[in-house]
Structure prediction request, 77 residues.
Amino acid sequence: ALRDINKGEEVTFDYMTCNIDVEQYNITKCLCKSKCCRGKLLNSDLYKKELQEKYKGYFLPHVQKKIDEIKKKKSLN
Prediction:
């Protein structure tokens, strides 16, 4: 978790942090209604610097590897 969770608090989850096929996701309308929800999950989310920073240290290794590849590719351009 990004922070401590209080007893009885609703927990939400961002699939961007762990999905093995994260680039195949393209959910244009999330129905979770969380106040911190982005509202949609797009394959382009992986390229967003603000999300990379928000979840830094919380990505599963294969997702972090993909992010590292994206960053490396950007630095070469």
